[in-house]
Amino acid sequence: MFHARDRQLDGLRTFAISMVLYDHFLAAEGSVLGHLGVRLFFVLSGFLITRLLLEARSAVQYEPGNALKSFYLRRALRIFPPYFAVLGFVWLVDLEGARGSLKWHALYLSNFWYALRDEWTPWVLCHTWSLSIEEQFYIAWPLVILFAPRRLIGPICIAVITFSLGYRFYWPLTGTPSLARDLLPPASMDALVAGALLAVHRSRTDVWPQWIRLSWVPLTVVAVIFLWLKSAAMPPALEWLAWIGRELSPLVPFVLLVGCCSSGLRGAFGRLLELPPIVAIGRISYGVYLFHPIVLSLIVKAQPWIPVNVSEQGPSRFVIGTTATLMVASISWLAFERPLNQLKRYFPYVRSGSFAYLPSSIKQSEAGGREYDASAYRRNYANRGISDEHAS
Fold this sequence. Notes:
Structural class: mainly alpha
Protein name: Peptidoglycan/LPS O-acetylase OafA/YrhL
Largest sheet: 2 strands, antiparallel
Domain Acyltransferase: 8-331
InterPro entries: Acyl_transf_3_dom, Acyltransferase_3
GO molecular function: acyltransferase activity, transferring groups other than amino-acyl groups
Transmembrane segments: 36-54, 75-93, 152-171, 212-231, 251-272, 284-306, 318-336
């Protein structure tokens, strides 16, 4: 049985993916809610990955090499099968002319593909930029958590976040903003590593620092203001400042939200996050994110047989696209992803003699799937395009 914190984190995933679907199926051009969904997903991923690895590292039988190997194998089981199934389908039918760029997507270099071209072509795979960012993070970050001296992990997190901030201040020197500004890894490392820093902090204490308790309300207000200013015309210098505000001001509220839900948030919002439909959608959110542009392309092609308008942003596209996406993602989870996830039991992070072992608090997968707890182990997008706001 999952703890409340696991259900609530799944509930947060539902809110994040809902922002993406709203942005890509319903919102008018210029919405940034989808990008907020990306940032929330990044904070969640950084937190869960780091928490899991820190807990494995704390076990008496911890072996860095085995933990690292198990991490990569388990990530591959969770992420690769549906991802490469999507790429295979796109290649087979050459959906939206995307066949020519598949090598980049297959190597998880989508963010570099779009950054180098400075255009969202092919649009049907442009959401994979954030999946590439996460995969690049997954390659490097476990090396830090599993091999760096534990006392240095917190300072390393702060250094990476500082570097990401410095990267943002570099952009006024480059002239007109390009896609590279948002798609290169440093632009997302602050959110991923902010989640990681939360896990490091939580491994020591549940008490929030005073500056977080005092700052999250004003930062939330600032974030809302910058989001409102998104559609306003402004000179390059102000646009750059607004971009920084939109990127950075939601981070502390997101970190606080993830941290509270990881402990079990009380009240009406906590109960909302734990509603079975909310939890269920969060559990399949990886598939929802992965499949939704493919579904969008197919329903637009099927417009002659659909009695409502799905060729443009609007309520009809949102209802039809969301319903179809949830159906496809549910089938994928039940028939494909969940059975593969169960193979993770053969790759425990920590071994105790001849028996697989996991710390009892490791019960949730790194990015959307589920793990058995230790006892279970022992017992057994306007028009046809998609904008640049995505999630993972």
